Amino acid sequence: MKAILGSEVAVRGLKYLFRFPVGLCGLWAALLYFACTVLLRANVVKERILADPQYPSLPYLKYSLCSFVGFTLAKMLMLTTLSPLVESFVRVSAEGDVATQIKERTRKLVVSLWTFCVHSSFFAWSLVLLLPQPWFVPLLFSLPTAHTQRVEAVAAMWTNYPYLSHVPMLHVFLMIQLGYYLHSLFATLVEARRSNFYEMMLHHAAGAILIFLCFFQNTTRVGALVLVVHDSSDIPLSLLRCVVTTKYSKLMTVTYIATVISWMYLRLYVFPTRIIWDSLMRPLLYKSVQWTEAYAWLGQICLLSLLLVMHCYWFSQLMKAAKVYVSTGDPVDVNEDDKTFSFKQPKCAAQHSSLATAATDTPASGECNQRSW
Question: Which of 34, 167, 215, 291 has the fewest CB atoms within 10 Å, counting from its CB?
Answer without folding.
Answer: 291
